[in-house]
Write a structure and sequence with these properties.
Layout lengths: L2 H14 L1 E3 L4 H5 L4 E5 H5 L5 E7 L5 H12 L5 H14 L6 E6 L3 E6 L2 E6 L7 H12 L3 E7 L2 E9 L6 H10 L3 E5 L4 H11 L3 E3 L4 H13 L4 E5 L5 H6 L2 E5 L4 H6 L2 E3 L5 H17 L1
Parallel strand pairs: 2-9, 2-11, 9-10, 11-12, 12-13
Antiparallel strand pairs: 1-13, 3-8, 4-5, 5-6, 6-7, 7-8
Helix pairs in contact: 1-12, 4-5, 7-12
The structure holds adenosine-5'-diphosphate and magnesium ion.
Length: 287
């Protein structure tokens, strides 16, 4: 590989909206056969909005919203932003949270109005009406977060975001390059399947914790695949670093960008295909 050709490739990348850490990155792109795509913020916009609130028998909807919103207000997760904004809109000013704790890939905890509140996937036992609520939300392709305090689940909040307009085209382009797309997410299986269907992906790895995302990438590599990972979140950083090629959404977190080899400046997943095409072309010129 001549340095000049690689430099030209790097310059062309910048024109396409691809920031390349170093010219040598183009070489590792050549062997990639599998592209793992994170769901939230990569295939979907990550701009979630509150869709519906369900409460347990005897619970008060406004209180569920107020306490959940107060804790989520301290988090920057897309789910948290949706819950906090929706709660403020429906229940008014949010109270203060104390002892806030983030549980990566699972939710948040904090103390509000003298109660120990948890929001997310942090409850094992749910009353039947909330089990049904969660099923309904997930059947509709929404992410269901459970709200509770002092040890009991009191409500379910359904949030959803939209698939990016360019995601289906991106998957078609990746397939046309002979690559196998895989959807990877911490979200529940029903939601993941709905998104995968919408964009044309048939291999789905769902309900994984942030540290399990790395394990999923390692497993694919052990199976002999050469893996590119595309992600945006703090929870994707380790997996991006572990993949043969890490591609970060420029619209994502600094942690993801730092862990990656390439940054897709505009956050358009089609540019992942452009990057692979560019490196193949650059290397063909060299040979
Ligand atoms: P993804 O892999 O799709 O980017 P994450 O790993 O960040 O998603 O989160 C996985 C799941 O954990 C979410 O779908 C949600 O159910 C739950 N979760 C994470 N953070 C929060 C939060 N701040 N509030 C509520 N639920 C959360
Ligand atoms: Mg994400």
């Amino acid at each position: 590989a001549t340095p000049t050709a690689l430099m030209v490739g790097t310059g062309r990348g910048a024109q396409l909206g691809i920031l390349i850490k170093g010219p040598e990155v183009l070489e590792s792109t050549r062997r990639v056969d599998t592209v793992v795509l994170d769901k939230t913020g990569t295939v979907t916009t990550g701009r979630m909005t509150l869709q519906k609130v369900y409460v347990a028998d005897g619970a008060d909807e406004e209180q569920v919203l107020r306490l959940a919103g107060a804790v989520e207000h301290a988090s920057e997760h897309p789910v948290a932003r949706a819950v906090a904004a929706g709660a403020e809109e429906r229940a008014g000013r949010l109270p203060q949270v104390e002892e806030f704790r983030n549980v990566p890939g699972q939710g948040v905890r904090g103390r509000v109005e003298g109660r120990d509140v948890a929001v997310g996937r942090l409850f094992d036992a749910l009353p039947t009406e909330l089990v049904r609520a969660r099923e309904e939300a997930e059947r509709d392709g929404r992410t269901a977060v459970v709200v509770g305090w002092d040890g009991a689940a009191r409500g379910v909040i359904a949030v959803a975001d939209a698939v990016k307009e360019t995601s289906a085209e991106a998957v078609r382009e990746l397939r046309a390059l002979g690559l196998t797309p895989v959807l990877l997410t911490g979200d529940n299986r029903a939601v993941a399947e709905a998104v995968a269907d919408a964009v044309g992906i048939d291999q789905v790895i769902a309900e994984v914790l942030p540290e399990e995302k790395v394990e999923a990438v390692r497993r694919l590599r052990r199976e002999g695949r050469c893996v590119a990972m595309v992600g945006d979140g703090v929870n994707d950083a380790a997996a991006l670093a572990t993949a043969d090629l890490g591609l970060a959404m420029g619209t994502g977190t600094d942690a993801a960008i730092e862990a990656s080899d390439l940054t897709l400046v505009r956050g358009d997943p089609r540019v992942a295909a452009d990057a692979i095409r560019l490196s193949r072309r650059t290397l063909a010129t060299i040979r």
